[in-house]
Amino acid sequence: MNEMELKYGCNPNQKPSRIYMEDGSELPVTVLNGKPGYINFLDALNGWQLVKELKEATGMPAATSFKHVSPAGAAIGKPLTQVLKDIYRVDPVVELSPLACAYARARGADRMSSFGDFIALSDECDEATALLIKPEVSDGVIAPGFTKEALDILKAKKKGNYNVIQIDENYVPAAVEHKQVYGVTFEQGRNDLKLSKDMLGNVVTENKELSEDAKNDMLVALITLKYTQSNSVCFVKDGQAIGIGAGQQSRIHCTRLAGSKADNWYLRQMPKVLELPFKEDAGRADRDNATDLYIGEFYEDILADGTWERVFTHKPEPLTEKEKKEWLAGNTDVTLGSDAFFPFGDNIDRAAKSGVKFIVQPGGSIRDDQVIETCDKYGMVMCFTDIRLFHH
To answer: 26: burial class by Cβ within 10 Å (0-12, 13-18, 19+)?
Structure first.
């Protein structure tokens, strides 16, 4: 099978639509369930590349949650603390495998952005991972294989219409890729650059202490950025992306966006937030939306009379700015990656507010000295890779 007809393209008016192999070879994907669409396949194929490379670079199972051709989250399979299990809404009866841990981290870091995602897994999907996917609102999953138990669970989602795609993990795409815009064909060499720890040797700051954990986090950031719509930056901690700023025209706006997501991730771990008095019948999405509002600047939208009663048993006390600032001061040793150079030190100032200790970026700005000086002011460690990772 070298082509597959799709219902429509990006929008219902864009017909006809299909995916196919121009050289007549077999498609590297098999649909095991459902009817994936145009955007589903874009997310699936980009997500698969991300997790495949992340596993190759770190040696650990990897997962990503994709939305609109950019990752909402990405992670490797490090164990979860009880607090992370709580904020990621992990069913306590599920015995987590490394792959399930990777998925829980990728899906849970930014649950608002991951709502309705397409999942990519580096390894055969096992029963534990499928059980975590089961209650989430998601469009589909791509993996190199599925156990029988996992496939049975996934086929039952969305009244039997959940998209399950198996990809040939040995498939190697052509070295040159093409796309069309307004009838004009673009051609370029595929970005098959392998990112590795060997690229992290050029430490340009006064502080040069770079642990193996920090190097792994840098790889998570760089590989995530390689498949994120540019401009983009990525905050990472303990093997998972905790804040991704994608597709912004200004890099400082990327940093602010990703930094606010990283802050939200950490605020969700506050005891006061973990103890929010949700009604037993409050749905997962309702809890996520309410939590996001509660910890943000528009908290009055969820605590207003006539509104809080929908999700809470009683009206919670709002978080004060002092409480938030004191709690956020505890978020340390965060890594920040950028797909292109930081042009000004203001990005570093913003990163410091979210606990960033390690930075990896290409370098090459005429103001590199200013950026390095700002890093030194905070005692940060910064690597220059000389590699830009734009993705469009």
So the answer is: exposed
Q: What tokens were used for 159? A: 């009244």
Classify the C-alpha dihedral 300-305-308-313 as positive or negative. positive
Can you name the CATH fold of 3-167?
Cytidine Deaminase; domain 2 (3.40.140)
Class of CATH domain 195-267+328-384: alpha beta
Q: Where along the chain do its domains lie?
A: 3-167, 195-267+328-384, 275-318
Could you give the angle at the alpha carbon of 108 between the alpha carbons of 137 and 152, nearest 5°? 45
**CA–CA separation, 287 vs 295, rounded Å?**
12
Q: Whole-angstrom Cα distance, residue 96 to residue 41? A: 28
At residue 73, φ and ψ (nearest 5 deg) are -165, 155
Q: Rounded CA gap, 257 and 219, in Å?
A: 21
Contact 125, 99 (CB under 8 A): yes
Among 144, 169, 168, 141, CA closest to 153: 141
Are both 3-167 and 195-267+328-384 of the same fold?
A: yes
Any idea which residues carry the catalytic annotation? 67-68, 231, 392
Give residues with Cβ within 8 angstroms of 281, minimum separation 6: none
* Phi, psi dihedrals of residue 233, rounded to the nearest 5°: -135, 160
One digit per residue, the tens of pLDDT, for the chain of length 392 reads 899 999 999 999 999 999 999 999 999 999 999 999 999 999 999 999 999 999 999 999 999 999 999 999 999 999 999 999 999 999 999 999 999 999 999 999 999 999 999 999 999 999 999 999 999 999 999 999 999 999 999 999 999 999 999 999 999 999 999 999 999 999 999 999 999 999 999 999 999 999 999 999 999 999 999 999 999 999 999 999 999 999 999 999 999 999 999 999 999 999 999 999 999 999 999 999 999 999 999 999 999 999 999 999 999 999 999 999 999 999 999 999 999 999 999 999 999 999 999 999 999 999 999 999 999 999 999 999 999 999 99
